[in-house]
């Protein structure tokens, strides 16, 4: 754990860069510092590895004051990635990746397997290790930059606006990559940004700074729901605030209650007539206590022939989401995992509802593209073909 206790930093000339900062950062947490330029983000981050030393207060790592650590040893334990430092052009990809472990005098035998392991994590072929940066695309080079930051296996990684100068699409894919690797490797990340979307995407905890002070520190969800001041609202922007109003509600608020279901011992013919009567293409199979057992779709029933099997014989297992799932997480399921509809179950796995693509898309329409938006701004998710596809499909569904 990293802990700031009443930390202040005053530069010569009475320049207050950080004032009475108190933060607790748990192991494996992803913390983003955000604020306007000059608000003290970099100063706070650099105090963690003693590149800047506090004027007063103390910083503890695992309960020990960092002033008691040897500064060189401390910096070895903490990875640091400065703004937009590219790869070394005259070194191979391999040499770039193992640069810090080499500086730390790791055994050479360990380095090749390390580099191979890391390059596989970013889906690039091992043969690329022997190429030079100029032989890789810009996006590939950036991915190498990310794994280089992780190569020395330090438990704490500091990143100061690493993606500040990148185009939005590259930035987006690197954010996903960083988040994925952070989760996989369980490292603590401290990440400085001035982009709220970036902070909302990445952070477990966001620390909002203004003029050397912490204005608010909380989860992205709570910051969106309860922005502490106008400054925070401004950083979030109106669009995000609108979005937050509903997308952090649970799926219970938009689900169809008591979806059409049928019991395990009913036959295919009975199922077909129930579908016809209710005009649905999917039936959920439940037992007497309403536990979700499986699902049968209209196409499965089309194939049964004369034998007229029971639901138990032909149903497949159904993926389900729990009733406390946030809408924003459900959006992810629909969009990434391409579900057409999802049953909702309670904590006992009893069927309580159904969320359809159409209801999700409705939520997106009303919140991301607010109705009174008369500007010709591009929609937030326009870059994404999958998403467009999803929406067209849902519109099609509605027009039936
Ligand atoms: P941020 O990273 O949020 O842009 P910084 O931490 O770099 O902010 O800076 C916070 C404040 O401290 C700013 O007003 C900046 O001018 C001042 N500052 C930063 N570094 C120094 C320094 N070495 N000497 C004097 N003032 C500094
Ligand atoms: Mg800075």
UniProtKB/TrEMBL annotation:
Stated name of the protein: Quaternary amine transport ATP-binding protein
Family affiliation: Belongs to the ABC transporter superfamily.
Gene3D superfamilies reported in the protein's UniProt record: CBS-domain (3.10.580.10), P-loop containing nucleotide triphosphate hydrolases (3.40.50.300)
Domain CBS as annotated: residue spans: 255-313, 314-371
EC number(s) recorded for this UniProt protein: 7.6.2.9
Pfam families: ABC_tran, CBS
Organism: Peptoniphilus stercorisuis
Cellular localisation: Cell inner membrane
């Amino acid at each position: 754990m990293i802990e700031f206790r009443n930390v202040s930093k005053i530069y010569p000339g009475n320049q207050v860069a950080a004032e009475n900062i108190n933060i607790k950062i748990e192991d494996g947490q992803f913390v983003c510092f955000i604020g306007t330029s000059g608000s003290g983000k970099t100063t706070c981050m650099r105090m963690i590895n003693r590149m800047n030393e506090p004027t007063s207060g103390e910083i503890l790592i695992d309960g020990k004051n960092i002033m008691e650590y040897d500064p060189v040893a401390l910096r070895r334990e903490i990875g640091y990635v400065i703004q937009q430092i590219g790869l070394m052009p005259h070194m191979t990809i391999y040499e770039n990746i193992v640069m810090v472990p080499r500086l730390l005098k790791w055994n050479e035998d360990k380095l090749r397997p390390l580099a191979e392991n890391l390059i596989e994590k970013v889906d690039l072929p091992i043969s690329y290790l022997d190429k030079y940066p100029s032989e890789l695309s810009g996006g590939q080079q950036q991915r190498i930059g990310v794994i280089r930051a992780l190569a020395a296996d330090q438990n704490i990684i500091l990143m100061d606006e690493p993606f500040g100068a990148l185009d939005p699409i590259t930035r987006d894919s690197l954010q996903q990559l960083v988040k994925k690797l952070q989760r996989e490797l369980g490292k603590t990340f401290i990440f400085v940004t001035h982009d709220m979307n970036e902070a909302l995407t990445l952070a477990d905890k966001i620390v909002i700074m203004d003029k050397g002070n912490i204005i608010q520190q909380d989860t992205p969800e709570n910051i969106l729901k309860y922005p502490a001041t106008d400054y925070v609202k401004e950083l979030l922007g109106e669009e995000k605030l609108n979005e937050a109003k509903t997308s952090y509600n649970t799926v219970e608020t938009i689900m169809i209650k008591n979806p059409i279901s049928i019991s395990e011992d009913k036959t295919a013919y009975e199922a077909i007539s129930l579908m016809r009567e209710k005009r649905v293409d999917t039936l959920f199979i439940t037992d007497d206590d309403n536990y979700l057992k499986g699902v049968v779709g209209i196409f499965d029933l089309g194939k049964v022939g004369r034998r007229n099997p029971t639901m138990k014989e032909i149903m497949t297992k159904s993926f389900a989401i729990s009733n406390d799932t946030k809408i924003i997480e459900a959006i992810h399921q629909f969009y990434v995992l391409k579900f057409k509809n999802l049953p909702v179950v309670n904590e006992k796995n009893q069927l309580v509802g159904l969320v359809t693509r159409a209801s999700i898309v409705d939520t997106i329409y009303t919140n991301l593209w607010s109705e009174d938006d008369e500007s010709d701004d591009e929609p937030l998710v326009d870059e994404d073909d999958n998403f467009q596809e999803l929406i067209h499909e849902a519109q099609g569904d509605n027009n039936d």
